[in-house]
Structure formats: C-alpha cells, structure tokens
Amino acid sequence: xxxxxxxxxxxxxxxxxxxxxxxxxxxxxxxxxxxxxxxxxxxxxxxxxxxxxxxxxxxxxxxxxxxxxxxxxxxxxxxxxxxxxxxxxxxxxxxxxxxxxxxxxxxxxxxxxxxxxxxxxxxxxxxxxxxxxxxxxxxxxxxxxxxxxxxxxxxxxxxxxxxxxxxxxxxxxxxxxxxxxxxxxxxxxxxxxxxxxxxxxxxxxxxxxxxxxxxxxxxxxxxxxxxxxxxxxxxxxxxxxxxxxxxxxxxxxxxxxxxxxxxx
Length: 264
Fold this sequence. Notes:
By secondary structure, the chain is an alpha+beta fold. The two termini are 13 Å apart. The protein has a single domain (2-263), classed as PK beta-barrel domain-like (M1 Pyruvate Kinase, Domain 3), CATH 2.40.33.20. It contains six helices and 19 strands. A hairpin with a 2-residue loop joins strand 14 and strand 15. The protein is globular.
C-alpha cells in the first residue's frame, strides 16, 4: 500500500485542503480540526452531523495553520478565520463563536443518520448528544481518534468520492484487496513514512457523507452502502455502519503522498 492522498480540515465540518506532506504529532495531523464553531446559544460544537443547523458549513472551505487559517464562504469571500464568526453567523442563521481549543466534555448533536435519510434532513428527530474526541488528547475537534484513514478498496467498492468521508489519509491498495479491510486493523501498527499509527476503531458513518460538499450534490448511497454492507461492532458504541479506520499516533513524524505503508 501507499499514500494516495493527504487531507487537513483546519475548521471542523468545513471543506479542507489537499496536502503533499503532513506532520503527525500526538494529536493527529498538525493543524487538523484545530478550530471549530460553537453555537453561542447552546455551547455545543457545530457539526454537519446535525444538518438542520450546520450543513452549510460543507459549502465553506478552510486552509492553513495557526494564525494563518483562512475561511472561504460559498460566495467566494475569503477572510482570516479570526474574522469569520460574524459572516458565518449570517450564513448559518445562528450566532456562532470560533474556538481554538476543545473544552473538556465537548459535545455535538448527532441525530440517527438513517432516520434522517428516511424522514428528511430537517426532520425533528431524536438528537442524542455525543462527546467528541474520546480517543484524542489535547484540544483538537476530531470526532474520535487523532487520525482517520480509508482505503481505495473500500472507496471503490462503495463508489464514493473520498472527500465525502473526510479522511486524513487515503491508502491506495493493491489488486484483489477486499473492501473494508480496515475492519481488521484495530490494534495493528501501520508504519507510514516517518510515523507509526495504531488502529483504534472502525469509523462509524454519520449523515455527513450524504450531504452536499461544495459543488458535489447529495449522495445517500454514501451512507446506505456501509449500512447495507459493513455493519460492525464498534467498541463502546454498538453495531454501526462503518467505512475506514480511526487510529492513534504511536510515533510522530512526517508523511508524504506516495509513502509506502506497512501493516503489522
């Protein structure tokens, strides 16, 4: 296997940037999910997992690291992330603030994704709260573990563009590799360039991959595929539709597009 693509998403739930190289520290890809919008009324992290309020974030783009992160709105306006809370509040129709550190116990709203496909994105369905970043130290706004990866074997079998699943790393697999091979990797070590990852959990899929991403239209099959073909037990969460792998960083270092990958 080798790295086909690398991605970073500086602001949670926005489109991100394609990278040639990335640095992995103990918290994941440096600069990834470093910022998030916070619902000023409820104090919850904004995520397109709750599409009623936040799906317009997937029409925005973020790029850069640190103080240089910039946000581009759907109308093409670009601005420093630090100045984006007001325009984003107007776009979303809800007051938001921008945060650079995840609070302890930070939660998002996560309606049942299959229920949303059945009843509609704006349906008033039960909306449990999910604590994010349960497998990640520090303050980044990742969903669970520091790094998310997926293989081309899985993507090709599902017929879904990688951008919909929002991975950090897309692994190009060889001919004959079965889809959902990532299911077998929790607990195994992946040596990539100068870094080593350890598989944590299969990646549960929410409604986000089905939504519009920039100019890409809605794609219900991005959830229905895993729901029909790969429901697996995810430790601590139950049996869920999955595609991809969450991983933690055991050895920090730089990785590059084209680096070979070994699984042991």
